């Protein structure tokens, strides 16, 4: 006869000293956990509600410019600083980390500054404006002592400099609309009546591309291939240039003009174009007949777009006074930020650590927002981190069920956007109904519905 | 050449495992099934490619986690289950507790004892979820809270009233006692916290852990559910079946089962006034009901000395055991069934598929067994009887490995407090109590609105016509009250009512011929609706 019973000795199951960690034992058997699905659902509901409670995305506003902000530039080498330029020629470097103050100013432009960019090593700032100037500035190195000193310094700096940082100034014969710097190398491109490629050391452009009668509105170099750049022009074209060739490599003609383009840093063959009709179109650079994805949520023209360094999301700023964050492969935005005081948003940037979003708008303020609205900033304990991850996972598992979906999706929209969306929904429904009926009442095959991905593209050239 | 040969050898090695590893593989697969919790979704019916790839990657993750859990179960669990194996002619049910005491270690033999308290009546027992604390309530008013690990008496009070039932709330800090006129909730140190007057004289008290509901059935046969977190009476249901004191909670889905004197067992949930299920289980009154922890099996015993095992998925009888009238039944975590009659306890086990005798224990003749209950996470059976309470060893009844996050017998104060907060955060609303709890979180298949049948339409029509005929018309004066006009008006009313019901199909001899189905294929799509649908 063999008998064995369960006998647990207390030493095995409790800790020896009070400095030790408590012992934890796991048994993943589902029979020990009755109603686990209901409990999980309850946790998902609680997680969704908690997320909404802690959603405070607005971090702060940076006041200082005297006119609307026209463009911004990120310094790839220095995380805490961002450059911004306004419509009256004022260029400032901000410290966005703790003090949210101007570190130094770069005065000199007489008219609006239209384009701003920083070289990859972080030493040279290029700006171009309506006064037909292209200026190169040297960026002051951040000192080892941090923001306290810089805030003291800023008051001195503002009063004393006078061309202190200016390296060079080139005068063009036309106003330039945009500027962008190559990722590896010394070249930068300015866009205006024609597209010019410049070297830091020369005062004449290295190469020029002319493209018909309309001016080039925006320009962006590819992060992966140093010689490829994408531009958009006023006659609704998106062109992809290779500097080594003499003319455009590809051209896409759309129905409305593209205000800004951004390349996906993780998938450098894809780019997303922010269009005047309120949509963003993601294209595969190699295959341009149809858009990979159409991102629809803005009500008015999309002014600027920037990708997150993870390549998974991008932020857009629009003329309808809102900033939206979209997933790179999804059709609708996951987040919208708006304030009563924020007017038309002209430029947005996603910070290089993928935590913050900076928007520059017409009301002369730069605003700093969190990319994930309910994120806890600062140092997070590993236990807290695990709990956040668990909450995220359990909420994603049940986010399609009605009660939780309603909480997760809910965003307060400002009244003009809400009404405009309702109107556009009604218009689109009516149009779709009429198209369906037209199709049903005509011979099969004569009426073809165009997919959304090709609807706004007229043709591809070359 | 040599490189190719070497590669081939490697491939062969992967495919053919040594025989003992193959056995382990099969074992692991069987365990894996348990952790998969059902079958994966059928992704073939999906047309959306993006969704399909996302769900396919998720299903892969589920497979991986099930594999990992199966491996952990095989290699990392600290303890193994108890067993009682006899060789040859010896039968397991002839093994006595004294024989067992000789074979097991000291710690286990401490779990065999008899506590004799002859003055205070038959004792009812309850254990906390972790099995660490026990509450004993004697009929004559003796309440005792015991820490089973250290065999400490934490608190005993004498309430000087009849106590019919006792129950722990969510942990050992609170317990409820059903006394003569009302039920009371006490704290751990014996302070009376609440008097639950609304329920009246309660016969049975049970606590639903996930929902924080205290369920009770009183002497009139009313079922009460009260949320103990904020005191609201969630439901009071008149069962309509008279007085009963047989009530059990199904731990799998939170449904309360009542056994009635007519032999029916009814199952209730707090959100409906009618029972979920009514089963005719016995020809005579039902003495006791017990649920298997997996939620599929129910054992009932009736006064006609039969014990029946039911499958709750099909509501069919699986097995009948004759011979004794079990006053009290209890299932253990591993599926053993204890039945107490008179002064004799029988433990049945299902190792051979059906429930058969496994062990038995008979007490001194005068001791009438009031309640048997298995202690969680231990191989111990607690017996409350008329002369006190006892505890016997039943090897193989308890779950050897506990999970610290579910129930921890070695809990510290801090852990207990944290757990209480988490339990409250995870408290389920009473609407989640249903027969099949896996439906929560699942999508309901959309149903199209069905057209009412011809018979239904006709019936409705007749009802409306009758109503129209019954309408009394106002009697007009000044020469407008001609009988011909009155009848005309009435006819018009009835005709209007008939018009609101659409005409039924004429049939094959209808005026308008419908286009045949073979001709329908040539029609443009907008005219296809005029083709006759069979």
From TrEMBL, chain A:
Spans of repeat WD: 62-104, 106-147, 209-251, 295-326, 338-379
Family per record: Belongs to the WD repeat DCAF13/WDSOF1 family.
Predominant localisation class: nucleus
Annotated keywords: Nucleus, Repeat, Ribonucleoprotein, WD repeat
Region (Disordered): 421-462
InterPro entries: Sof1, WD40/YVTN_repeat-like_dom_sf, WD40_PAC1, WD40_repeat_CS, WD40_repeat_dom_sf, WD40_rpt, WD_repeat_DCAF13/WDSOF1
The UniProt record lists the keyword Coiled coil: no
Xref: PROSITE patterns: WD_REPEATS_1, WD_REPEATS_2, WD_REPEATS_REGION
Location relative to the cell: Nucleus, Nucleolus
Composition-biased stretches (Basic and acidic residues): 421-433
Residue ranges of every copy of the Sof1-like protein domain listed in the record: 371-457
Gene3D superfamilies cross-referenced by the UniProt entry: YVTN repeat-like/Quinoprotein amine dehydrogenase (2.130.10.10)
Protein name: DDB1- and CUL4-associated factor 13
């Amino acid at each position: 006869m063999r008998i064995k019973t369960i006998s647990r000795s207390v030493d095995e199951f409790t800790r020896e000293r009070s400095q030790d960690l408590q012992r934890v034992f796991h048994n993943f058997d589902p029979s020990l956990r009755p109603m686990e699905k209901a409990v999980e659902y309850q946790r998902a509901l609680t997680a969704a509600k908690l997320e909404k409670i802690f959603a405070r995305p607005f971090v702060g506003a940076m006041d200082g410019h005297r006119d609307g902000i026209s463009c911004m530039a990120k310094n790839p080498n220095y995380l805490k600083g961002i450059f911004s330029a306004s419509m009256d020629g004022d260029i400032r470097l901000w410290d966005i980390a703790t003090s949210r103050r101007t570190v130094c100013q770069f005065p000199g432009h007489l008219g609006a500054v239209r384009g701003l960019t920083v070289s990859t090593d972080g030493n040279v700032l290029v700006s171009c404006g309506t006064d037909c100037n292209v200026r190169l500035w040297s960026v002051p190195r951040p000192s080892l002592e941090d923001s306290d000193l810089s805030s003291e310094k800023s008051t001195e700096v503002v009063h004393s400099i006078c061309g202190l940082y200016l390296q060079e100034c080139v005068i063009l014969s036309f106003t330039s609309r945009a500027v962008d710097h190559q990722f590896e190398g010394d070249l930068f491109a300015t866009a205006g009546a024609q597209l010019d490629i410049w070297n830091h050391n020369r005062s004449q452009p290295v190469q020029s591309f002319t493209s018909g009668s309309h001016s080039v509105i925006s320009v962006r170099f590819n992060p992966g291939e140093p010689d490829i750049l994408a531009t958009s022009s006023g006659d609704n074209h998106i062109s992809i240039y290779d500097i080594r060739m003499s003319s455009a490599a590809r051209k896409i003609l759309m129905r409305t003009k593209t205000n800004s383009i951004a390349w996906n840093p993780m998938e450098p063959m894809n780019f997303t174009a922010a269009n005047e009709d309120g949509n963003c179109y993601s294209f595969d650079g190699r295959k341009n007949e149809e858009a990979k994805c159409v991102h629809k949520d803005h009500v008015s023209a999309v002014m600027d777009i920037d990708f997150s360094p993870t390549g998974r999301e991008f932020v857009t700023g629009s003329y309808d006074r809102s900033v939206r964050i979209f997933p790179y492969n999804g059709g609708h935005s996951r987040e919208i930020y708006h304030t009563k005081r924020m007017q038309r948003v002209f430029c947005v940037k996603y910070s290089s650590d993928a935590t913050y979003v900076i928007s520059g708008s017409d009301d002369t303020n730069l605003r700093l927002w969190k990319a994930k609205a309910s994120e806890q900033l600062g140092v997070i304990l590993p236990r807290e981190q695990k709990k956040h991850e668990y909450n995220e996972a359990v909420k994603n598992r049940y986010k399609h069920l009605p009660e939780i979906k309603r909480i997760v999706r809910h965003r307060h929209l400002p009244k003009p956007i809400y009404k405009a969306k309702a109107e556009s929904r009604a218009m689109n429904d009516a149009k779709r109904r009429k198209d369906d009926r037209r199709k049903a009442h005509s011979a099969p095959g004569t009426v073809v519905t165009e997919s959304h991905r090709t609807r706004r593209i007229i043709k591809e050239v070359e | 050449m040599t490189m190719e040969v070497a590669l081939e050898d490697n491939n062969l090695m992967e495919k053919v495992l040594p025989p003992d590893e193959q056995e382990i593989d099969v074992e692991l697969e069987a365990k894996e099934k348990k952790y998969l919790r059902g079958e994966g979704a059928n992704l073939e019916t999906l047309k959306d490619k993006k969704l399909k790839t996302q769900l396919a990657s998720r299903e892969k993750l589920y497979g991986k986690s099930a594999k990992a859990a199966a491996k952990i179960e095989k290699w990392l669990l600290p303890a193994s289950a108890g067993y009682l194996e006899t060789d040859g002619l010896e039968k397991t049910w002839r093994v006595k507790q004294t024989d067992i005491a000789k074979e097991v270690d000291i710690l286990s033999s401490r779990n065999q004892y008899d506590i004799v308290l002859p003055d205070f009546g038959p004792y009812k027992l309850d254990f906390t979820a972790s099995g660490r604390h026990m509450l004993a309530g004697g009929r004559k008013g003796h309440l005792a809270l015991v820490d089973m690990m250290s065999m400490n008496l934490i608190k005993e009070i004498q309430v000087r009233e009849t106590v019919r039932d006792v129950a722990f709330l969510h942990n050992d800090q609170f317990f409820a006692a059903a006394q003569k006129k009302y039920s009371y909730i006490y704290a751990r140190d014996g302070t009376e916290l609440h008097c639950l007057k609304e329920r009246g004289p309660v016969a049975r008290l049970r606590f639903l852990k996930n929902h924080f509901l205290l369920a009770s059935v009183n002497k009139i046969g009313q079922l009460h559910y009260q949320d103990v977190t904020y005191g609201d009476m969630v439901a009071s249901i008149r069962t309509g079946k008279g007085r009963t004191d047989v009530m059990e909670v199904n731990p799998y889905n939170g449904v309360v089962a009542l056994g009635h004197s007519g032999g029916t067992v009814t199952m209730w949930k707090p959100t409906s006034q009618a029972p979920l299920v009514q089963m005719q289980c016995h020809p005579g009154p039902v003495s006791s009901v017990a649920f298997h922890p997996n939620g599929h099996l129910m054992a009932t015993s009736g006064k006609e000395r039969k014990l029946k095992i039911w499958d709750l998925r099909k509501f069919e009888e699986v097995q009948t055991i004759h011979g004794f009238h079990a006053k009290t039944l209890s299932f253990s975590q591993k599926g053993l069934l204890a039945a107490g009659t008179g002064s004799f306890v029988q433990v049945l086990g299902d190792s051979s598929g059906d429930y058969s005798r496994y062990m038995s224990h008979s007490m001194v003749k005068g001791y009438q067994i009031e309640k048997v209950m298995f202690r969680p996470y231990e191989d111990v059976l607690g017996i409350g009887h008329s002369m006190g309470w006892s505890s016997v060893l039943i090897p193989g009844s308890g779950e050897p490995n506990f999970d610290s996050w579910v129930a921890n017998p070695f809990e510290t104060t801090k852990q207990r407090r944290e757990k209480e907060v988490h339990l409250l955060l995870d408290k389920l609303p009473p609407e989640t109590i249903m027969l099949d709890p896996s439906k929560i979180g699942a999508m309901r298949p959309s149903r199209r609105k069905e057209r009412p049948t011809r018979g239904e339409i006709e019936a409705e029509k007749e009802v409306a016509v009758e109503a129209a005929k019954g309408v009394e018309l106002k009697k007009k004066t000044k020469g407008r009250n001609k009988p011909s006009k009155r009848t005309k008006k009435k006819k018009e009313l009835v005709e209007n009512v008939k018009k609101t019901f659409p005409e039924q199909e004429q049939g094959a001899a209808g005026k308008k011929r419908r286009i045949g189905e073979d001709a329908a294929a040539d029609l443009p799509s907008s005219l296809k609706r005029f083709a006759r649908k069979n």
